[in-house]
Amino acid sequence: MRNYSLTNKWFLTTAIVIVLFFASCSPNNVKIDNSLKQYFDAHNATGSFGLYENGTGDFIIYNLARYKDSAYSPASTFKIVNSLIGLETGKIINEKMVIPWDGIVRTFPNGDTAKAWNKDLTMEEAFKASSVPYYQEVARRIGKDAMQQWLDSLKYGNHTIGNEVDRFWLNNTLKITADEQLGLIKKLFFAQLPFQKRTQEIVKRVMLQESNANYQLSYKTGMNTLPNGKSMGWIVGWIEENKHPYFFVLNVETASKEPMQDIRMDILNKILKQQGFLEGKR
Fold first, then answer.
1. Which of 20, 45, 160, 281 has its CA 20 to 30 A from that of 87?
2. Residues recognised as catalytic
3. Do 123 and 140 form a contact (C-beta atoms < 8 A)?
4. Comparing C-alpha atoms, which of 168, 156, 152, 92 is closest to residue 127?
5. Which residues lie across from 41 on neighbouring strands?
6. What is the pTM of this model?
7. CA dihedral in degrees (254, 258, 263, 266; nearest 10)?
8. Is residue 14 part of a domain?
């Protein structure tokens, strides 16, 4: 009877400690900010947004359900991972490696000639121009088996390739949530992904899009057509002000005829400015 009593006391004490531990480790640092809806509404769009301040752990989220639970094709944001795998496997030597143009003149859906794609490109140029043909060739050189192994290791989205090693991130086979996107870029920033540090540093460098006295803005965009016929866009990355990184993920969905390139950048810029970024207010 005495042993039974002591056992009960031990379990009770342990349970109390566990409850107190988790309570102390779960600060209320997530703010749902519905004021951001106005920027999506301005373009007749739906979507989600997440902003994570690394220094404090504060999280601002718009449309939490979509942010956490809705998975979409990564589209050209997959060039981040494609670059990492290409560099790590030696299929890309460095950001200056050229893949010759195959001579096929490509056009965009609106009929414009893809002039930034229809030429020999370095990895850096292909990343900035979001060249699909360059990264399709990289994926073919990596091969399906190696690509699958890396996606499994990274636990990247649903890590599903299907039958086409050069199209799975474009045709809605591979899908990922906004929350998973943010987790990936945060690990990339701190070189915590299962790649060599050199590999991650190269990709971080090519992600830098804007740099001035007030901030450094790094990101990768993506765009795709959903099965429902609507246009879907991403911007994933980080902004550094006063040497502090803030990680963000924007996901946008709309039936608007306005170019997605304009919609997603307008929403991102307005949200960042509302939060005090881009103008030296941080």
1. 160
2. 76
3. no
4. 92
5. none
6. 0.89
7. -150
8. no
